[in-house]
Amino acid sequence: MKEFEASCLSAQIVDENVEFTLLELSRASGASEEEIMLWVAEGAFEPKGAAPQTWRFSGASLRRAHTAFRLARDLQINAPGIALALDLLDEIEALKIPSRRLRHN
């Protein structure tokens, strides 16, 4: 008999205008507050506010935090590597946009 492997897919749709505190972003992404603070120090995130207690993260930060968390957990990538990987993923996504437009014309 064949084994059946089930996987669960979850997604969150977040309005870009929604803002998260450090604690809220941590809880929503699964990353610790310390991890997020390291990623901010490396430039992976640019919160509004001068200090961690006043930081506000955009809705887009949640997607980035999920990705950063998976990179850290699954691939054991350190904070500088996560910042670089997120920037490269953004560049790849930006390159796909013109390609999609050409295919649909």
TrEMBL record:
Q: What is this protein called?
A: Chaperone modulator CbpM
Tell me the Gene3D superfamilies matching this sequence. Answer: 1.10.1660.10
Q: Pfam families recorded for this chain?
A: MerR_2
* Source taxon at top rank: Bacteria
